[in-house]
Amino acid sequence: MNMAWFKSRGPSLELEQLQRRDQLLAPAPLNACPLTEQRMVVLDLETSGLDTRRDVVLSIGAVVIDHGGIDLGNQFERTLLRPDQKLSSSVLIHGISPSELEAGSDPVEALLDFMEFVGDSPILAFHAGFDQRMLARALKESLGYKLRHPFIDVAELAPMLCPDNRPRHSGLDDWTAHFGLQILQRHHASADALITAELALMLFSRARRQGVADLAALTLRLNNWRKRQQARML
Amino acid sequence: MSTPDAFAQAGKTAVLQNIHGSMEFLRKYAPFNQMETAHLAYLVENCELRFYAEGDCIISPDDGVVQHFFIVKQGRVHGLRPHTAKRGTDTTFEVIVGECFPMAALMGERATRTAHLAAEDTFCFLLNKPAFVKLVSISTAFRDFAMRGVSSLLDLVNQQAQMRAVESLGEHYSLETRIGELALHHPVSCLPSRPLDEAVGLMQEQNVGSIVIVDELLHPQGIFTLRDLRRVIGSGTTDLAAPIGQFMTHDPFHLPPDATAFDAAIAMTERHIAHVCVVENGLLCGVISERDLFSLQRVDLVHLAQTIRHADGVDALVVIRSRIRQLVDNMLAHGASSTQITHIVTLLNDHTVSRVIELALADMGDPGVPFTWLCFGSEGRREQTLHTDQDNGMLFEAADAAEAAHIRGRLLPLAERINRDLDTCGFTLCKGNIMASNPQLCLSRQEWNRRFSSFIREATPENLLSSTIYFDLRAIWGSSEGCEQLRQSLLEEIADNSLFQRMMADNALRHRPPVGRFRDFVVARKGDGKDTLDLKVQGLTPFVDGARLLALSNGIGACNTLERLRQLVEKNVIEQKDGAAYEEAYHFIQQTRMQHHQQQARDGQPYSNRLDPDSLNHLDRRILRESFRQAQRLQSSLALRYQL
What's the structural domain count of chain B? Predict the structure, then answer.
């Protein structure tokens, strides 16, 4: 990547925005508190497409799991201002119209708001790798901020914790149907975040029964499971 | 600037999608569908969503004063109370999607009395208590729900208290009023030595229809009424100075002050009297007259009964009986209980049957053979509703088969006439020909005994079905002695026959209450009764069958289902708590059925016991479901007892 070009196009933030960025909290260690008390942010992004290098974040939806429950009064939902976003076929999936994007928030403000919402909590998402890369790039480009928060993938937790009766396919829809969850509006960032959080609550309940004490223990199991899965593939 | 302000701001703008979605979800259920949007939004914004895996305890008595209002978003929650018998725990109620708990505990600011467990994987919305309190204060719809919810069966089943949810409708018009409050507090009374003319003078002076004769200590000795005066004068007594003690009716009927207006009305109707003494600790403290009940515009039950007893022909009876429906309508509208109504209907039906028999005898001449008119089934159990058909028979004494045949020959024409006249009066002819005019049901006591024995010994499906009808028997007209002897040998025979008991138990499980595991009601899928359930067969029959089986097997002669349950509790055959819960449940289903019939009558539709549960309001629907669940519990206790 052409660094000179990147720097010249680098984010130009106002003083207040710089102050806010510099005050963002560093992630807390995952073994800091038991699973039953852990605060987690469950995230879903709607993007212009699936290319993590070219496509952009269009909207952010997030809910919080805290002390084992989802607080409905404390959610994050923001559509980002993307005036130059071309009408593409992905609009059929995310359903965010160009007019909505034009009425959205300034991405810098939205991302700062979101990272303040996240605080020092770990982030959960379904197929978290994608959201992590999209969010990291957006933060880098808009804020010059390096995302270090740990991500936990609910799409991995589900088959690990429910090995016996996993659905044939493992998309969010499949697991949602598997657990009989009711989704309000699929492919809407907030609704997807909520359903992912509900799924996570069910999975954490199983994890606790299996003796998992905190998120550190859970990620350790997840790493081992991932290795076993890869070994099986070979 | 990671301030709470920023979070709040983020929250404010973020509410839209998920808050809106949750509101839409809640709008499908009462009381949320009646709440203002702003109030509902406030509710959702103050909710937390939590997950409970199957078997997780959501809230228990040990958690102390309840801090949250729970709404089931997905899944099913059940209440468990420790079962006093061996089985560990016992499900007392279920809460399904869209329903709330623990209302009574929350309103009463106490701990729950029952542990609430997730019956399957469950999500609940938890509204914190301060927000709940605020909602109760700002939202009328929510407040009404919270207040009424407390009196729902759910809570009452737990408390084993008496159900008032339906009855509370008509407090001002109540047959439940204590007669102590209604009675004349300084009853007109005199000593037995008082001359007749002076006593009558006292009655005249006080403008009353009766005088109670008491001793010096106010113990009632007798009563003298205007009717007695007519008898005295009519019989040509001339000595008006004779002491009234010679003319009074001894040992007048009395009730304690705690008895209800209903009790008094029933007593007057049953005994053909117009005055009831109110006696406490053996001392006279009041008199209540038929007129007192009238003047309070309670029921013209007494009057109706008398008119029936004096009707001079079947045509007159038909006219009078149309008024029974009006009476029942009135009573239902004023919140009378189903038990009171079935009692009254039975009583008036008994009077009608007796009058029809008397009229037939007068018209056709006395056959010269004493006989007893028996009734079976719901009539035998005193559980008749307005729409009823005939189940009756005749019983007489005969030395041998030849004499029995001879007597039968003389009684059958009379029976036929009576059956026909009853039909004219609105007691539909029995399709199964269970009527006295059927020669197989006009039998001597020995023949009845043999017939009943065969039901018990040869437990064919047909005989089992017959036993469910015939074994609820009662004498309506004529001596009841033969009927009681018949019942006694019946009880003895059943007590000795455990195979028959087991077959009856099996039979009592035929009709499963329509509550499912996952959905709240199981309704018919197709046919005429699509989306409906049968209140009688699926709701009442399990109680009736269960109570009959247990009563007959335990030597209890009563036929009325509620009476059977009470005696079973007394005999420790069933637990008191269970008995009370069954009684409430039975009572509620019967009440629902009557209201349903009343609605059908208003709409000009034929009577049917099939009800679409969706036509009920949320609360009634829920109580009905809990009532069916009690039927289910009774059945599973039978299955356990008889190892089926």
Answer: 4
Chain B hits for A186, CB-CB cut-off 8 Å, are: none
Query: Inter-chain contact B11–A74, Cβ cutoff 8 Å?
Result: yes
Tens of pLDDT along B573-590? 998 888 888 988 898 888
The third-level CATH classification (topology) of the domain covering A37-233 is: Nucleotidyltransferase; domain 5 (3.30.420)
Q: Is residue B155 part of a domain?
A: no
- Looking at this protein, which amino acid is placed at residue B332? L
Burial class of residue B562 (count of CB atoms within 10 Å of its CB; 0-12, 13-18, 19+): buried
Q: Residue ranges per domain, chain A?
A: 37-233
Q: Under an 8 A CB cutoff, do A198 and B18 touch?
A: no
Q: Which of residues 6-35 of A touch B (CB under 8 A)?
A: 16, 19-20, 23-25
pLDDT at B82: 61
The verdict on ipTM greater than 0.90 is no
Place of tokens 């729902």: B152
Report, as an integer, the average pLDDT of B303-325: 80
A184 CB near a chain B CB, below 8 Å?
Answer: yes
Residues B489 and B513 in one domain: no
The answer as to whether B157 is a domain residue is no
Q: B92 Cβ partners below 8 Å, 6+ apart?
A: B78, B79, B80, B81, B114, B157, B158, B581
Instruction: Kindly report the average pLDDT of chain B as a whole number.
Output: 82
Contacts of A76 in chain B (CB under 8 A): 10-11, 14
Considering the domain architecture, whether residues B253 and B394 belong to the same structural domain is answered as no
Rounded (5°) CA angle B376-B379-B381: 85
What's the N-to-C CA distance of chain B in angstroms?
70
Is residue B538 assigned to a domain? yes
- The answer to whether residues B469 and B551 belong to one domain is no
Q: What is the pLDDT of residues B460-509, one digit of tens each?
A: 888 888 898 999 999 999 999 999 999 999 999 999 998 899 999 998 99
Find the residue in A nearest to B45 (Cα).
A73
pLDDT digits (tens, 9 = 90+) for B288-311: 887 776 544 445 666 677 778 788
